[in-house]
TrEMBL record:
Pfam families registered for this protein in UniProt: GAF (PF01590), GAF_3 (PF13492), HATPase_c_2 (PF13581), PAS (PF00989), SpoIIE (PF07228)
Domain PAS intervals: 160-196
Record organism: Streptomyces sp. gb1(2016)
SMART domains found in the cross-reference section: GAF, PP2C_SIG
Source organism phylogeny: Bacteria, Bacillati, Actinomycetota, Actinomycetes, Kitasatosporales
Protein name from the UniProt record: GAF domain-containing protein
UniProt KW Protein transport keyword: no
UniProt keyword terms in alphabetical order: Hydrolase
Amino acid sequence: MITARAAATFDPVGRSVATARAFVRDTLQGWGYTDVVDDAVVLTSELVTNAVVHAGTAADVLCLRTEDGVRVEVSDHYPEREVPLQSSGLDFGSPDREGGRGLLLCAALASRWGVEYTPTHKHVWFQLDLPERPVGIRSASPVLPTSLLPVAEQRVRVAVVQTDGSGSIASWNDDASFLFGYAAEQVAGKQLTDFVAWPHTPGTNTGIADALQLSRWEGSYGIRGADGRVIPVYASHLRVRDADGEPSTVCLLVRDYERAVLQTPVRAPVSDSSAENRSTDPFEIFIGSPAPDDLDGLLQRTVERARDMLDADAAFLLLATDDETELEVRATTGLPSARQRFARVPVEAGTGRYGSARMPAVHEDLTVVPGAVPLLSDTGMRSVVTVPLKVEGRLTGSLGVAAEAAGRYSNEEALRLQFAADRIALAVESARLGELERLRRGSLSFLVEASDLLAGTLDRDQTLALMAQMTVPTLATWCAVYTIADQSSEPYLSYVLHEDEERIDGLKALLSSIDPPDPVPAPGARIWPAPTEAGHEAALRTSKRTLGRDAPLSMGAAARTTLATAVAVGGETVVLPLVARNRVIGMLTLGKPSDEHFRQEILELAEDLSRRAALALDNARLYSERMAISQSLQRSLLPPGLPDVPNVEIEVIYRAAGEGNEVGGDFYDVFPIRDGAYGFAIGDVCGTGPEAAAVTGLARHALRLLAREGFGGPAVLERLNAAILDEGARSRFLTLLYGELWPQEDGSALLKVVCAGHPLPLRLRQDGSVEAAAEPQPLLGVIEDLELYEQEVTLEPGDVLLCVTDGVTERREGTRMLGDDGLADVLAMCTGLTAGAVAGRILRAVERFAAEPASDDMAILAMRVPEPQNL
């Protein structure tokens, strides 16, 4: 009886073979037929290859589930192809021949198989029966004494969480609420990844999002509880689909120390007494087959098998650094692994040295030799045996097992463990080098991206934010950046970031309450215990205040924040100096949650990042200072405001081109000279930068001073010309329009104007006509003897005088230029407008003339004599 079916069609291309294999594997694993998966995948691979490669047609694959096994049919669209004839001996020819290999494998592996023809298709099918086994039994272990059974609480809680195809939580049982503190309605619809604390190293490991997409997955990670603590769990994932074909993932989770409830037993090598000549790999005898293909999985299985082999309570494995001076904890079982993982101890000398790393050692009672194995301090373990892992005489690690009772081990156990260590040392070192290579590639990619991001901004605040965002969560769980303004200033807490945004405020408050780290310029990361100690003290005070209550439900939000912050800073905290141009400009602080350590490769990567970030931060500081000076100087070169001139409207629009509005360039001024007389000027200094700024400042202040001394327009400009030439090599030529304005009693305004090399002022009459209001004369700063003269202009009521710099008239788009004529045409359309409206319309016309932003400064000065109001 067929109980389920799955079908798919694959295109006639080479990659379809791998896709077909994955389809069959996922289908059979989803049905629970793991015993026949491997054979089915091999046969499907050969038959699909025949169809898409040799026959050159699409392949249809149909999987049928029955009560006794599975039937797989592979069809191609080339029915006239010959089927190898069967002789009485089922001879399909040489196994090395391409043709017929799939049928040869069917005959060897399948319970039944056959070939069927239709007018359009050829079907090759095979049947795989499930192996006979006792009903309901998948695996079994011998009866064990009660003392050797796995430890669990009075009631084992199994959290059942189901996510939909997008990873959102669709189901959350009562045990999940008990274990993690969230009610089902609090988490429904949220991403499971929001609650997972996934161990991650740049360039290595599979992420939680990837694990949820696998057909089956099993392993350890953490869940962030409602109180902020990370709860280590052991999980088993199974990806299923409903009757409508929609996929989802069922996740079973238990506390990590209760993993025996879910953990699949290690598959031991299959013994075959009939194969006397087959050699047995000692590595597979110890580690099991198949061996994990990742370093963490290999090390974890190694310590578990070592513990079981010597009937121990705990086991651990440490890997040596390249210089063999330190050992790093990489895998433990039966110990508080979160506290120990990635912790380092010296091999030869120093506090807490590992005294027995290079030779096998047996310690019958650690209470007699305290500190001999630092990893086991305060764990309750008394007897221990440790052996080195060596490759070509070089120390690569240390493997140890421990028991709570004294005197459990002797030299015989040490020899057994050393034999096992010798078998796995090469595999462990090979896996370590592979991980290191992936880490280095990932680190290089990380640093390249970080450099690009840091180089892309000169804003100090954005640089601080980028520094923190690049470290969290890739390198650390939380990050704080301290900055130092100058040598006499104390470090200032400038930026704080945590991977959980709800923890940022509490973390910032905690760090603000303690003294900042010392600004030590020595390179490298150093441990900073202050946040951990402060968090522990704050949590202790909070716990005392809530003693006797039903915490945490009855405690306030502030108390819960304090406890969560204590957990967040409970791990290792390191400080890296930010050194730029031989000066400490700040510190980069990285932290881990409770009892976690940084691995050395991460610290080295963080050190590289800190050097790049320090230079970027100092560049941003220098740029900000330069910008502040530039903008302050620019403001000082422009008048603070416009005076109120009786019966005359005056409007000025100034636009500095370029990023940062560099000083120099165009300027303007309108100022009172004496009662009833006002001066106005608009000019353009050649160039930009400090030299141009000096001339700009000289011109504006000289104009005011000379005009108020009673000099007329030509005399003012001639003396200004002499002052500019006195600057010598620093001088710049200057185009300048200067005039004096006298409002008249009849409502008109009298102007005396001198135009020294500047674009001519334009006069707009009430009838819409536009004409130049002055004649061109030599510019300033070029020749010594100038003979300038002034011209009188009378503005009647309703008339407008427009003065601009060449940034307006020389506005370009390709070969087109606005020019004097274009400006006059725009001004002619401004009849009846106020001075402000005229200036605004001129600016809009200039901006719309070309799509690109303006590349030159612009100054627009409009003066209008209003028409008398009819009473």
